[in-house]
Amino acid sequence: MPAHFPKLGAMGDAAILVELGDALDAALNARVHALARRVETLRGVTAVVPGYATLLVEYDPAQCEYDALCHEIQNALHIGGAAAVNHTRVIEIPVQYGGEYGPDLEFVARHNGITPEEVVNVHARTTYQVFMLGFAPGFPYLGVVDEKIAAPRLETPRKRVPAGSVGIAGRQTGIYPRESPGGWRLIGRTDVQLFDPTREEPTLLRAGDHVRFVPI
Amino acid sequence: MLQIVEAGIFTTIQDLGREGYQQFGVTRGGAMDARALRAANALMDNAEGDACIEIASGGLRIRALEKCVVAVAGAPYVLHVQERAVPMNAALFLREGDVLQFDAPAWGRYAYLAISGGVDVPRVLGSRATALRDGFGGWHGRALGSGDIVRAARQALPLERAGKMWSEKFARYYLDDAPLRVLWGPHLSFFDAAAMELFLGAEYHVSELSDRMGTRLLGMALPRRAKELLSCGVTRGAIQIPPDGQPIVLQAEHQTTGGYPVLATVIRADIPRLAQKRAGEAVRFTVTTLADARAAWQAMLEF
């Protein structure tokens, strides 16, 4: 059955989920972020939460009504269409690959029938898009990972993934900002601080940014 | 000024949470029972969003290091100042050296101690709530422990400004047996009509594994389509259905995004009622409308 996008639907009485599509696609994701910038200033909107292909809009029902807000969001969708996000930043993340920092690097290599060095080369030569932040403050979901180094999550997540660990899950790559449980395949580690709650813009990376990993 | 003598479990500083940072992966957090927090603040003539101490279990003992006025609202903890029984839902005038003791309530889980002017800790990302999982906010990002000294913004409240509340009327909201009200969706494409009917007909029980991130429910496994859902933003009250079909209702410290489809979402007005349910308690659901949800929110705030 064909899906019709964009779709807008309530998630409870104080949030609206806007679905722009259902694919892991950089251009689709760029439209999510363009929409987020337009919607976050609407009256009554208290938060916008970008996803891969969706935008959650939280609002205060005392300040705006569901129907009127949906109408405003529809308007915002039609302005600019596929307009790209302005001022896309490229952030470089230095990474120590392999060894004690990348306990799953060998697995990723074996899984794909290539050497660990080739995994590192492929991982580091792609410019990734930050599709969204979630799971933990500052945790970036980056894509799209080259098929040559895609790898499934661990069957049983590790109880403790060290802070700064760089991981792969499917065609996504990401960085754990702090120690936490985690199921991604770890291939390296960075020292870079991804989250600082004392700053008004508390994360190094924003959804929509571009990221390159630099082997050190 | 209050000093923690014995901390109890998960005694934390909370307010109404941090708004606007979810896009950075920062959970909204805040009180598990926002109704009781607001009520405690109203008793102290505080702003509704002033920070309070959230009490999640009996055993807490607090000593007043100087005279102060506090109030406790929420689950009916049994309160004593030394040997003297003192009431919930009323201004309590503590003298220097008084020790206020909390013993387990007959129902519910969470209560809020408000102090005149609000608990004074630095705001982090706009809020004084403790982000326990992430280690920031509130009391240095952790639960309160013995020896910790909690300060208030003001020291005394004129007697005539202390609020009043009727305990029975306040409690009625929580003891209401009616099903929790939800709005459908937004991921209805994952569920067929039979699953939706099952959901409305089922009685679930709160799992012991429930915590500040979510209320886990045990009962009828809800069938859902096996297809993958790309992670999307989620809100408090959203009812996620993981592959095992056991619903999870997102609570205060839920992650900002999730990959499980959301079948329905509990309306804001019924979230405090759910948050106060203990392991083993029964939960049922019913569908409502946006208009009714709006009216329910107003009604919930009358205490």
Give the tally of β-strands of chain B. Answer: 21
Q: Name the average pLDDT of chain A.
A: 93
For the termini of chain A, the CA-CA separation is: 49 Å
Which chain pair has the greatest contact? A-B, 47 and 44 residues
**Secondary-structure element series of chain A:** EEHEEHEHHEEEEEEEE
Q: Give the strand content of chain A.
A: 25-35%
CATH topology of the largest domain in chain A: Cyclophilin
In the CATH hierarchy, what is the superfamily of the largest domain in chain A?
A: Cyclophilin-like
User: How many β strands of chain A by DSSP?
Assistant: 13
Q: pLDDT below 50 for ≥5 consecutive residues: which ranges of chain B?
A: none
Secondary-structure class of chain A: alpha+beta
Q: What would you call the structural class of chain B?
A: alpha+beta
**Helical segment count of chain B:** 5
Write the layout of secondary structure elements.
The complex is a heterodimer of chains A (216) and B (303).
Chain A: E1 7-10, E2 15-19, H1 26-39, E3 45-50, E4 54-59, H2 66-78, E5 90-97, H3 105-112, H4 116-125, E6 128-133, E7 140-143, E8 158-161, E9 165-169, E10 172-175, E11 180-182, E12 185-189, E13 210-215
Parallel strand pairs in A: 5-13
Antiparallel strand pairs in A: 1-2, 2-4, 3-4, 5-12, 6-7, 6-13, 7-10, 8-11, 9-10, 9-12
Chain B: E1 2-6, E2 12-14, H1 34-43, E3 52-55, E4 61-64, E5 68-74, E6 78-81, E7 84-86, E8 92-94, E9 99-103, E10 111-115, E11 149-150, H2 167-175, E12 180-184, H3 193-201, E13 204-206, E14 214-218, E15 232-233, E16 238-240, E17 248-250, E18 257-258, E19 262-266, H4 271-275, E20 282-283, E21 285-287, H5 290-300
Parallel strand pairs in B: 12-21
Antiparallel strand pairs in B: 1-4, 1-11, 2-3, 3-10, 4-9, 5-8, 5-10, 6-7, 6-9, 12-19, 13-14, 13-20, 14-17, 15-18, 16-17, 16-19
